[in-house]
Design brief:
The complex is a heterodimer of chains A (about 375) and B (about 375).
Chain A (H helix, E strand, L loop, with lengths): L6 H17 L2 H10 L7 H9 L18 H13 L6 H14 L3 H13 L4 E4 L14 E5 L2 E12 L6 E7 L10 E7 L5 E6 L7 E11 L4 E3 L1 H36 L1 E2 L2 E2 L4 H29 L5 H27 L10 H13 L4 H12 L2
Parallel strand pairs in A: 1-4
Antiparallel strand pairs in A: 2-3, 3-7, 4-5, 5-8, 6-7, 9-10
Chain B lengths: L1 H17 L14 H14 L17 H13 L8 H13 L2 H13 L4 E4 L15 E5 L2 E12 L6 E7 L10 E7 L5 E6 L8 E12 L3 E2 L5 H14 L16 H9 L1 E2 L2 E2 L2 H29 L11 H20 L13 H12 L10 H12 L5
Parallel strand pairs in B: 1-4
Antiparallel strand pairs in B: 2-3, 3-7, 4-5, 5-8, 6-7, 9-10
Chain lengths: ~375, ~375
């Protein structure tokens, strides 16, 4: 039940901070956003992350990883969140490859996971079909055909689909949109016949795409699991995203605090005005409260605690709440300059908003928390 | 170690002899007087009301380990313990600042629980700005003559003595003219007037001093050095506060979730009012976050990992949290949450309504929310004024 970082995690944090300060200032994210090149991230950096062992943190040693946990990956995600790094950590490590890792298809695990750990394989995860997060609201159909299935449907906001080698697709073999039963996860090759990927442009500079599947054929050996697997993958990705959000919010807060101490108007630093002092203290309390809940959720999942899903929803709800406040106050307290694109604070605000609405916002997770609590 | 085990055995045998089952319910107002008196007497005889105080002052003279063992044994059987102002606040302060005479005179009756104390700090004109207090103490021979008024004095109507902040120098800067003094309540010149609050309770009083007398040798710490003594006492108050569930008056008899389920009803397995459902979830998540953050504060300190002082967030977030719990309750009950007493209302509805009223004070006493935020901005975030 860890709420503080272990010695190992502290060292990991320190080395991550040093590496990213050197290799990934926020200006890099801005350039990638502006260039909007084919990839939207820096493949050479991804390889360096592989060398550092970051990509294999969750992966078993037999598959080329280091068999650590979400606690450790959370440290990396936090630091990447602080610098707005756009690398495919969420899409691949927490969603696509994680679905393979957590599923029961051993052959695919052997094939994919070592390549992911090496930085040689990007695996995306195609779940969503509408704006409001609804994991069982899948209409994409997987019809039995030959020994396998053919998949038809449209998926939105598939992170890093445009650079993915493979995509895990959540499709329905039975039932209707909204049913938990009848869902299955399939590993599809990105260049398979019938797959059409259209890169989208989002406010947060995160790389995503629309994926259309038109009669895409998948063999029987490409199934990963069903709804139980889906729930697990989403829980892990959600708490991972929350960890990243804390990093982003923390940096936004620190920059805002610095601004309060530096900016002068009416003959005083604006930090002397009591209204701003109180709001800074409130922001700090929301951030720290969210940090605590995320730490607990990371360890709850690592320890396989019975209340892990409850902890994850608590973490995403609390972090979404903190992200809203910190993001909004960051812009407001920076005044006019906060509204300029040249100032970096806007980049943090937009990333926080996108993360807040991804994988379930505060309302979604409060409702899920309530259901798990029996009311 | 053998000595510790033998001590635990001794404690258990005292519990077995003096603590009947009807007392094994923790600290409550309605405990039967005679057995309670016998139990407290048994503790007093052994110095166990103040276990870690030196024996020459009536304490148990126990070290940390033995004191912790004693408290654990009491907790295990839910034994009622003495939690007076003397034990938790004045005593530790006297141990630090008191003269030998003061310690002998006052610590022994505290240890025996024979003298009750009240606290004279706030005044009608000096709440958040306590240092602006005006209660006057004028030297007259061997005495000080006290003139003025105190407010929010808990238990003044039952107290024997008062520890009081008075102004002994009106020319010095406000923090440097204050003295900490002790004097008896049962004398001419001391008048107590209970204050009734919006929930009907009357635990606090105003106290009026008109020619009350204190002996000059009952000043604790240096003359005009009382502010420092008071700050230290308030630290002792905060460390024993053990901010409970439910704010002033303690936790309700049933959980907020159970109360809300009954008031609002369920529909297809979820609370029938979705807005209240979401508020309840948000509240429970916030409560978890508070507990986890306070735990993190302690663990970070122990591990030498301390960054900014997140412990400072406890009081105002806790106040907001306990207020919100009762807000949800009364909103859920609707007009059934408006009962004062009598027919037409369930007991648990009346309980929640009273709690809703009194918890408005939790963001006010012990440092208002606004003062807490000021302190956090200045001391924790380092934003200069």
């Amino acid at each position: 039940m860890a709420v503080i970082l272990s010695e190992e995690q502290l060292l990991l944090r320190e080395s991550a901070q040093t590496f990213l300060a050197d290799q990934s200032p926020v200006s890099r994210m801005r350039e990638l956003r502006d260039d909007f090149d084919d990839t939207g991230y820096t493949p050479a950096l991804w390889k360096q992350m592989a060398d550092l062992g970051w990509l294999g943190i969750l992966i078993a040693e037999e598959h080329g990883g280091s068999d650590m946990g979400l606690g450790e990956l959370g440290v990396v995600l936090h630091e990447c969140g602080r610098v707005l790094a756009p690398e495919p950590l969420l899409s691949t490590l927490l969603l696509g490859a994680n679905a393979i890792r957590l599923g029961d298809n051993e052959a695919l695990q052997k094939d994919v996971l070592p390549a992911v750990a090496e930085g040689d394989r990007i695996v995306a995860f195609a779940l969503e079909e509408s704006g409001r997060f609804d994991p069982y609201g899948v209409a994409t159909r997987a019809e039995s055909a030959g020994g396998g299935h053919t998949i038809t449907g449209t998926k939105t906001h598939v992170l890093d689909a445009h650079v993915a080698d493979q995509i895990v697709v959540v499709a329905r073999t039975a039932g209707d949109a909204g049913d938990r039963e009848g869902l299955a996860l399939f590993l599809v090759d990105a260049n398979a016949k019938g797959v059409s990927i259209t890169r989208t442009r989002r406010i947060d500079g995160r790389n995503a795409a629309l994926v259309e599947l038109d009669g895409v054929e998948v063999g029987a050996d490409r199934m990963l699991g069903g709804s139980d697997l889906l729930d697990q993958v989403i829980d892990q990705a959600t708490v991972g995203l929350a960890a990243e959000m804390i990093g982003t919010a923390e940096e936004a807060f620190e920059r805002t605090l610095t601004y309060l101490k530096d900016r002068e108007q009416f003959g005083s630093k604006i930090g002397t005005f009591q209204a701003l002092r109180h709001r800074a203290a409130e922001m700090f309390s929301e951030l720290e409260f969210a940090r605590s809940v995320v730490r607990d959720a990371l360890s709850a999942v690592d320890e396989g605690r019975d209340d892990a899903s409850l902890c994850v929803s608590a973490a995403k709800a609390q972090t979404s709440k903190a992200a809203r406040l910190v993001g909004a106050e960051a812009i407001q307290m920076h005044g006019g300059i906060g509204m300029t694109d040249e100032e970096e604070i806007g980049l943090f605000f937009k990333r926080l908003k996108a993360a807040e609405l991804s994988l379930g916002d505060a309302t979604y997770h409060r409702r899920r928390f309530a259901s798990l609590q029996g009311y | 170690m053998a000595d510790l085990e033998a001590f635990k055995e001794e404690v258990r045998s005292v519990i077995a002899e003096f603590l009947p089952p009807e007392l094994r319910v923790g600290n409550r107002d309605d405990l039967p007087k005679e057995p309670l008196g016998k139990w407290i007497h048994a503790l007093a005889d052994r110095g166990w009301i103040t276990p870690d105080w030196p024996t020459e002052y009536g304490g148990g003279g126990l070290d940390r380990q033995h004191t912790a063992a004693l408290r654990a044994e009491f907790k295990a059987v839910r034994a009622p313990i003495v939690t007076s102002f003397g034990v938790s606040m004045l005593g530790p302060t006297l141990l630090e600042y008191g003269t030998e005479e003061q310690k002998k005179e006052h610590l022994i009756p505290i240890s025996k629980h024979t003298i009750r104390w009240c606290q004279g700090f706030s005044e009608p004109g000096s709440g958040s700005d306590l240092a602006s207090l005006q209660c006057r103490a004028e030297r007259d021979g061997d005495d000080y003559v006290i003139t003025g008024q105190k407010i929010w004095t808990t238990g003044a109507d039952r107290a024997d003595w008062i520890f009081c902040l008075v102004r002994t120098d009106f020319d010095a800067p406000k923090h440097e003219g204050i003295s900490f003094i002790l004097f008896p309540m049962h004398q001419d010149g001391v008048e107590v007037a209970p204050l009734t609050l919006i929930d009907g309770s009357a635990h606090f009083s105003q106290v009026f001093f008109d020619g009350a007398r204190a002996k000059a040798d009952q000043v604790v710490g240096p003359l005009n050095g009382g502010w420092t003594v008071a700050k230290r006492l308030l630290q002792h108050e905060r460390s024993t506060d053990g901010s409970s569930d439910g704010g002033i008056g303690g936790a309700a008899k049933e959980t907020i979730a159970d109360f809300v389920k009954r008031e609002v009803g369920m529909d297809a397995g979820v609370l029938a009012d979705h807005a209240i459902r979401e508020r309840l979830a948000a509240h429970e998540i916030d409560k978890r976050a508070l507990g986890l953050t306070m735990r993190r504060a302690a663990e970070e300190a122990r591990a030498g990992q301390r960054g900014r002082d997140i412990g400072s967030l406890g009081k105002f977030r806790w106040a907001n949290m306990v207020k919100e719990e009762q807000d949800i309750a009364v909103d859920a009950a609707g007009t059934q949450g408006l009962g004062w007493d009598g027919p037409g209302f369930e007991a648990n509805q009346l309980e929640r309504t009273k709690k809703w009223l009194i918890t408005r004070a939790d963001s006010i006493w012990g440092g208002t929310n606004e003062i807490q935020l000021n302190v956090i901005a200045k001391r924790v975030l380092g934003i200069s004024e």
